[in-house]
Amino acid sequence: MEDKKIISGLDVLKFVMAIFIVNIHLKPLRYASETVQDVVGIMAGLAVPVFFTVSSFLLFRKIQGGNSGDIRKIAHFCKRLATLYLFWCVVWSPVVYIQKDYFHPLSPFAPLLLVRDFLFGSIFDASWFLGALLIGVPVVYVLTRVLRTAFFWIIPLGLYVFICLGGYYPVTWQLVNGWYESYVCEDGMWLSFPSGLVWISLGYMLSRDKVVDVFSRWRSSCLWLLSVLSVVFLEVGVSLPVVGNIITVALLFTASYTVKLPRRPDLYKRLRTYSILFYVIHDCFKKIPKQLCGMENGPALFFVTIMFCLLASEAIIRLRQVKGFGWLKYAY
User: Fold this and answer.
1) By C-alpha distance, which of 135, 93, 144 is closest to 114?
2) Which of 317, 40, 24, 12 is nearest to 191 (CA)?
């Protein structure tokens, strides 16, 4: 079993990154200096990759032997994830109805388009991560079984490079992403499962016993220093193209994994739940004060949204313990 202090570091990291994800959509530092905005923008850009990496790590940490039980664990993970996703699709269904063009007028293909968006795009705002994880985890697992650990990462990394450098390719090559935008996900491969594969693969590689044994011996303070330097390199533009983000996420992960935290398991469990609920609540909720009060993206709306996410999360967690509200377990 993993040491609780070590896992707690990942819980804290994921919660902090959830706040950065809220920042992406609400821009609270729009009036700050350019340098501050750049650094926060870099951290925000690493937030969803951290979500992918931590989630896949925790799953693949349980899958080491390649036995028949692995399929059941993958299926159980996907079932829980799909249930959570469906729960919030129902909660935000009024917003979904307003936003989806194929409901206005109602298209006969609306059910199929909903399934397409569920798996390859977004049903509600920012939900692409859930669909990408749902598709990406089985894909990575199959790749590891077919190509083994030494080679499977070539495909996810190649896709990631293709997506990141798409603007530099000949027009003919760019037709691939154009086709994906037209028929699969309107936001392109960047906000769909192809871009998530590299981070899910990173989580898989970090979860291997031999890799964990290596970085568990490293000093957390040194890893944090390297993480800070890596972020600085990204900010000043001297980091390795494409690979710089992967290195930074790996450093942040290992630094959080090895950090020594006080033994407060209930607090870290709470933060873990907050990170999930903040993610699925924030981007749809922000539309309510925008519509009712005319609020715009900025510090005020960010504060209101964070407070609502906190209160809503506490309400869901506490109500789940009340008789008749056990179904709220599907919210997280």
Assistant:
1) 93
2) 24
CA distances to 63, 139, 204, 239, 248 from 243, in Å = 26, 22, 17, 8, 9
Residue 283 CA to residue 95 CA, distance in Å, equals: 11
Here the tokens at position 134 are 């749902």
Give mean pLDDT in consecutive 10-residue pieces for the chain, a chain of 332 residues: 60 96 91 89 95 96 78 94 97 92 93 96 93 97 87 92 83 83 91 96 95 93 95 82 91 95 91 96 88 86 94 96 94 95
H helices present in the chain, as ranges: 4-26, 34-60, 69-91, 93-99, 110-120, 128-151, 154-164, 171-183, 193-207, 209-215, 220-236, 243-258, 265-285, 287-293, 299-319
Distance CA 298, CA 190 (A): 25
CB 96 within 8 A of CB 88: no
Question: From the CB of residue 77, how many other CB atoms can be counted at a distance below 10 Å?
Answer: 22
Cα separation, 49 vs 55, in Å, equals 10
Please tell me the distance from the alpha carbon of residue 180 to that of residue 313, in angstroms, as a whole number. Answer: 35
First-last CA distance in the chain = 23
Identity of the amino acid at 264: R
d(CA 1, CA 61): 10
β partners of residue 106? 103
The Cα 154–Cα 216 span in angstroms is 26
